[in-house]
Amino acid sequence: MGHSAAICDVKSTSEMTKDWNGIDQVVLRNPQGASAKVSLQGGQVTSWRNEKGEELLFTSSKAIFKPSKAIHGGIPIYFPQFGNCGSLEQHGFARSKFWTIEENTPDLQPNDFNAKGCVDLLLKPSEEDLKCWPYSFEFRLRVLLGVDGDLTLISRVRNVNGKPFTFSFAYHTYLLVSDISEVRIEGLETVDYLDNLRQRERFTEQGDAVTFESEVDRVYLRCPNVIAVLDHEKKRTYVIRKEGLPDVVVWNPWEKKSKSMVDFADEEYKQMLCVDGAAIEKPITLKPGEEWTGRLQLLVVPSTFCSEQFNL
Question: In terms of domain of life, where is this protein from (predicted)?
Fold first, then answer.
């Protein structure tokens, strides 16, 4: 196994393995049988399964698992930019770099004591990164699998640079759904959004829920910290809770865009929906020594729950 993962709770079960392409990954399990896989490439959660062993995250059947190649699926981390601008690769370099396991980590916060399995990862800039983005940082990622099977990602970015820097961020979360036409998002009603399909023109969400019948690529601005994704056919609901992440990206490529993507099968858009906790509209600026924290929690409940129970 090489070295053991930094584990935040002695009752957890965790192991270092390799994926089918030989890339190191950490597998977290809770006593109820839920699991999560975290690849050291990109610090990316590539699998999240409930206690029945059912996969909850989408990964394309054509995803390319190669070193330095971003994986289409799971939860890639977009840092230090969202989108494509300047000299950086699209959506930044964090999702394609190899992260290290951090052995000596701070204690869990009180509200993390629910966690049963946990790993801490660290990313620092390489010489190559500094040429493209000349700022020294330490990016710490904690991934926790809770006793209830919930998945929490906590990112902490610290400026160890001599000058301020600014960045954008997103947890690009690919949810696995039964049929995109039967899915609705609650909690974004009356929220303003930028429509990337209309030159980032600004609109206000008019529906009582977001539903899907064509390509969608939007950045919802200053959203509530709890939203729900209801999968009618599966009769289950993804509840997304976030802190330090004011925006929410909603994306489904639909048919035409799917056919243009090399590492995405033509019909797979029907089984996926990206709903990202993000900081995009107002990028984060850190002065030397300052630290930012962005937290995302995902849990699944039966759709018999009422929206009021999510505190939407």
Answer: Eukaryota
pTM for this one? Answer: 0.88
Q: Read off the amino acid at residue 9.
A: D
Residue 16 β-bridge partners: 26
Distance from C-alpha of 93 to C-alpha of 131, rounded to nearest angstrom: 12
State which residues of the chain have pLDDT below 50: 1-7, 9-11, 108-115
CA–CA separation, 209 and 21 (whole Å): 40
Tell me the residue type at 245. Answer: L
| The pLDDT value given to residue 268 | 84
3-state DSSP assignment of residue 289? coil
| Structural domains for the chain | 13-178+242-263+273-294 (2.70.98.10)
Residue type, 25: Q
pLDDT at position 87, please?
56
